[in-house]
Request: fold
Amino acid sequence: MTQKWNAKTLTNKELFYGHKACGGCGESLAVRLAMKVLGEKAFAALPAGCMSAVSFIYPNMAFTTNAIITPFASTGAVASGMAAGLKALGIEDTYVVGFAGDGGTADIGIQALSGAIDRNDNIVYICNDNEAYMNTGIQKSGLTPYGSKTTTTPAGQNLPGSITMKKNMFEIVAAHDIAYAATASVGYLEDFMNKVQKAKETKGTSYIHVFAPCPTGWGHETHITIDLAKQAVDCGLWYLAEYENGAFKLNRNPKEFASVEDYLKVQSRFKHLTSQDVALIIDERDKKWAKMRRDWTE
Amino acid sequence: MKKFISGDDAVAEGVRLAKPHVISAYPITPQTITVERLSEMVEDGSLVSEYMHVESEHSAMACAIGVSSVGARAFTATSSQGLLYMSECLPYASGARLPIVMMNANRALATPWNIYGDQMDSMFLLNSGWIQVYVEDAQEALDMMIQAYRIAEDEAVMTPVMVNLDGFVLTHTYELVDIPLQEKVDAFLPPIATRDQVMSLDAPKSLCITAGNDFNQEFKMKQDRDMQSSTAVIEAVDKAFGDAFGRYYKGMMDAYRCEDAEVILVTVGSVTGTAKTVCNQLRDEGKKVGVLKLRYLRPFPTQGLCDVLKSTKAIGVIDKNISFGYEGTIFTNVNSALVTLKERPETLNFIGGLGGRDITKQDIRGVFDTLISKAAGNAEERIQYMNVRCAE
Reply:
């Protein structure tokens, strides 16, 4: 029977600790909990990014399991190689996991991820989406949302920050007919952990896209990370869904959305937005949800 | 057993005998025959290996890093732009001390690009932390695949090895090649041993780590020291290989008719055969000439090179590459080694074979004539392009 994860069943043993991530970091919480679900026989691959930068600083290693920093573009390929090597050596019951950020996944790493899914390599790939290149100092990535101010999409007289929408990674991954894919949020941790469990049990490639606020990059207070991640889902700017056996499933379909304005206003990256900008964001949300509600099951 | 096969085929036969656990490769001319043969061997079961169809050379090397990091034997092969595309990954492999073996079919770079052989590609990566060996013929290519794993996986070395063979001149020409028996190769090359550097369930590791300015230099220094001292392992492995299979390649370099030579031509790769032929003709004419085939460019055999070249009057270096704005890269390396001598011989650089331009016996004869003239005290241009078809 599939293990169900919650605060009671979760182990107290830490497999990822002592790292140097900022207070209130959503991404490191996702890594910590995913590692607890995957267990001590996990082999982790992390490209350049916050999580590798804060956890492999000689002589202090934050992973108690086997782990490796990969070239930036190579999370999928290194993870695939580890899985193939372990299989060839006959080392069984191990789990290879890749943890990459939004840029490491949707931009520079998308090719290697696509290759891994195409080969259906037996790996779990977790995209920690904090919506910009945070490790290098908050630059725009392919997953930075419209209207977000970053250090490369400054908000000024002429531009409202980022002018592109988020690249749709979940559906791009699903279009490969991947064995299992899901979206999650650190605001809904049980949902996230149980999706990691499902990915762990999947034979072949699985992908989890977890929404993870970054107080440093988003300009919000460190104690509201979880609430904000929950709010993003409740206001419809993020969603919880799964793809398996060729079908999309919406895990959470709010009758009424929480306020988008309330979500935006506590983050300094959105402070400059006009009411027209907010209207555009809400309009895009509604279009997306109309499509999901029409085409996906619940 | 002898087979009439190409250099690419010979590499594949060598890899089959070395039994890598995983092959990750992306096709690029003139490497393709090697990876085609390997995939056929995996299909027909004569090679028990995972063949991973990666989507780029960058991923081919990244995948090999993953394979090697868990302690399995990895192989990949590439060429030219493919080598440059994966180049970012090369220092990860060497810095993490992963004993990956890669075949590189030396090929011209863009632009103007073509698919033929020169050595611009691997020269780019002399500083990648990989051991670099260059072979002269298909037999040496096969034999070096086997030697390369034993060298790379040696406990004192634990460094990846790039085996270079000239595109088309070696990859696509056919020779009678002796295929060693699997039992003999198994005795020479045991299964990959578990090393402290790699991951294990009993003692988990973090690899490809960060080291700040407090420790970074020490890691690099140790890597350099181990690379320097790998020459002893390279020599010992070559000797053991010769004892087992009857073919000795003389380790770091092969000095041909150099004992009393007044003029020596330094070569790397397939041009050596042509140079030896011309050398023999000139010896028949009573000229004291020799050929020094450099087999390894990293580690660089500074002492050995000086021992061979110290009494020479004039030395020529053939470079199938050019470091734009300077000179041939092998020339730079040879000169740098020679400055350790009290009395330095004259050295001349001959750039040729770029984009696969043939280097003929006539060309080599011209090079020797120039060197003999230099040895006699005449002025000669220090850096020369061979066989140029336009005004310089």
About this structure: The CA atoms of residues 39 and 258 of chain A lie 36 Å apart.
